[in-house]
Amino acid sequence: MKLSRSTLALALLAAIVAPAAHAEVAIDVIHDSEVSFEGLVQADANWYHRDVQFLGANNNDGVAHDFDMRRAELVLKGKGPGNYEWVLGYDAKANKFLDVNAKYKLGGDANKYIQVGQFKQPNSLEELSSTKNNDFIAKSSITNTFAVARRLGGAFSYGDTNWSTTASYFERELTRNLAHGNGYGLRGTWAPINEGGNVLHLGLSYVNMDTDSDTLRLRARPLADLAGTRLVDTGSGTTGIRNADRMAVAGLEAMYATGPFKLQGEYMRAKVSRYATGFASQPGTSYNPDGFYVQGVWNITGEKFGYKGGVPTTPLPADPAKGMFQLGLRYDRIDLNDGALSPGATPTSAPVVNGVLGGKQDAWTVGANWYWHSNFKFMLNYVKVNSSRYNSTARAVVDDNPDILEARVQFYW
Questions:
Q1: Which domains does the chain have, with CATH numbers?
Q2: Residue 326: which of 253, 257, 267, 266 has the closest Cα?
Q3: Which of 10, 82, 148, 196 fits a 20 to 30 Å CA distance from 389?
């Protein structure tokens, strides 16, 4: 399914002429369902100051910058009849389906429901938070690498405003040739403090899924969504993770918000179970990469963060004409190494890789955001990356430490 430029232009025009104070465009009541239209358009720019490798979208073309549309999401939503809700979303930029599901709220309670279709799986505080309110332009390395996003399946959730438990079973992604492999997910949250703009959130999650092809590749961009190069990468084909059966990811999450300040962090550890027989260079031992991030955000203009459905919420500007200003700082680390080097058979032969050496990457991100009125957001990030990875050609661990400047213009309704 592809949307033409004229279709996208009409959708944007409809949103622009809608009242700016509304976050969605009401369409009609159809068969007792209140239908509304939402959208999100993001345009990004990345400027790279490389160290070793070229980072651009076309890898080694020598261009030190990228400009592109990041998202063009169009979403229809329905409330009713009764306790039913439904959503149909499509990203015209990525040519893939977003949330496509139906939900039944038990007793009309939004915290107790059954859901069927494609939806985000119950893992990762950052993944489950609204994309339009991301604190930084790029999500953390562990979220992009380990978290399971939208898949077809079913889920049951039960809780209240202060706690929740969610279980799901899922299969492939709705759009063909994207993520696949059946599995299940579990997430539990608890907010021991949740009153008057003060929130303490704690959460645990676990996802277990089939690799579906007995091979697996894990990699991460240098905290730049448009970059074509991954500085940490477990490889593909004969150099990738072979004889892989299933991957399980356990996650810890915490968030504390008080007034205009929010501190948030997550840790994820993956376990890739591997067959006992197969390739001599990769025996049947598990592979266990991990990573974490810690970040803080301050609403300079004083707006208070909220909390709903086990995730933080970002407020609208108190003064729409002036907007809401934010400053943020994040430290991010991912470690795809689980192995070691041994000397070669002779002094001139290459070292022997025991296990998987996908590399390590850590990065600092400094960000500034401006939410203007109810529909616009402008973001500016500076990212300093430090990475190291074994290079078979150089026969050594190579450091690559680039700097990246990123900007985003966002329009949503």
A1: 5-412 (2.40.160.10)
A2: 257
A3: 148
